[in-house]
Amino acid sequence: MANVSRRSFLGAASAGAALATGAGLAATHAPGQRLTSLTQGAAPISPAEHAARIVKLQSLLQQRKIAALLVEAGSALQYFTGISWWRSERTTAALIPAEGRTVVVTPFFEEPSIRETLKIPADVRPWIEDQSPFELIAGALRERRAADTSGLLAVEGTLRYFIVDQVTRALGAGLQIVPGEDLVRACRAVKSPAELALMQAANNVTIAAIRHVHGQIDAGMSNPDIMKILVAATEALGGTHEFSLVLLNEASAFPHGSTTPQQIRKGSVVLIDTGCSVHGYQSDISRTWIYGEPSTRQREVWNTVKRGQEIALETAALGTPVGAIDKAVRAYYESGGWRRDYALPGTSHRTGHGIGMDVHESPYLVRSDTTPLQAGMCFSDEPGIYIPGEFGIRLEDCWHMSDSGPKLFTPLAASLDQPV
């Protein structure tokens, strides 16, 4: 919130090699057992892979006659350079030219820290507090601009406006700012084996943390009580906790939560949506179950959502527009009487989203997205159903497209009685 033949994929899922790691976690940590790290063997992305990313990006820049791509602190900067940094009013950014070395600008006093995670050959140009980082960026572009490129500077899609504005002023006439999101997407949408391995590790942690929480739930517990257990379990299992939602009772009908306090009671819906990162790569898993005896309605809705997850995977095939997955799930739900066009009661959000270094990345499993499925693309599968004033059910697992079909990072929930 996050191709074997279509039928045989689901029928053989628990035995599939792609699910072996996730499925094997069932016996890794029994209830009450001390949690230990599952990520000790996880290897970060190598400098060689970072260098290959720069080469690919520069090839794209050259093909499109674009002088350079500008990225600032965030996942794109980490993807291309290895630099793991946060955003503030002090600009840290990288200018990746169509030819030549990358230039990194950063505050003078941050330079040693920036160099700790830098994984590519680059010129680091620090600026002191009364200097302009934008003049440094403009100067680097003038130096690095290849003779056969046009007067275009591409900017990554999340670059903040004040940086774009100040760089534009520093460059003056003769250079045009253009969107660079399609360049970044062309590099990031298809994951490498090393990236998939890190995402597998993150998903292993998250499903084990949810399994641990499932065994700890008791009457009278509140959202903060459950959240505390979940975060501690995630960290003990070796993940960096990124986000969690604990939605109880009527609040489970709010996809991203409610401010109304809730407590566990007999018949409570417990919806947990959580994720962690391992060396910058994300997981996103949701499980919903009932504390005590489920009602007939709760069980029917849970089974419908589970079938929706299956249909999403059955629809996924190389070359299929990703929006077709969302359409297929909605057609099934609507045939059962749920509302059309993202209305409630029904499924008010897309069937899933791309995932990688960001929890939400393109492409998206929404009916308007025509991006064709490629091997290496990664998504969540989360076609929840929400009934305002009653409850919501969301089940979510992440998967990646392979040459032989979709491969889950974690097995789908078996049943309402065995959700993890």
How would you characterize this protein structure?
With 420 residues, the protein is of the alpha+beta class. It folds into two domains: 6-34 and 190-408, Creatinase/methionine aminopeptidase superfamily (Creatine Amidinohydrolase), CATH 3.90.230; 47-188, 3-Layer(aba) Sandwich (Creatine Amidinohydrolase, Chain A, domain 1). The chain is built from twelve helices and 17 strands. It has helices at 6-11, 20-24, 47-63, 75-81, 111-117, 133-144, 161-171, 181-188, 193-214, 223-236, 296-315, 323-335, and strands at 68-72, 93-97, 102-107, 122-127, 152-155, 176-179, 240-248, 268-278, 281-282, 285-291, 352-354, 361-365, 378-381, 385-387, 391-393, 397-402, 405-408. A six-stranded mixed beta sheet has the order 4-3-2-1-5-6, sandwiched between helices. Helix 3 (47-63) crosses helix 8 (181-188). The chain is elongated, with a radius of gyration of 23 Å. 47% of the residues are buried.
Quick take:
The protein is built from twelve helices and 17 strands. The chain is α+β, with helices and mostly antiparallel strands.
List the helices and strands and how they pair.
Blueprint: H1 6-11, H2 20-24, H3 47-63, E1 68-72, H4 75-81, E2 93-97, E3 102-107, H5 111-117, E4 122-127, H6 133-144, E5 152-155, H7 161-171, E6 176-179, H8 181-188, H9 193-214, H10 223-236, E7 240-248, E8 268-278, E9 281-282, E10 285-291, H11 296-315, H12 323-335, E11 352-354, E12 361-365, E13 378-381, E14 385-387, E15 391-393, E16 397-402, E17 405-408
Parallel strand pairs: 1-5, 3-4, 5-6
Antiparallel strand pairs: 1-2, 2-3, 7-8, 8-9, 8-10, 11-12, 13-16, 14-15, 16-17
Helix pairs in contact: 3-8, 6-7, 9-10, 11-12
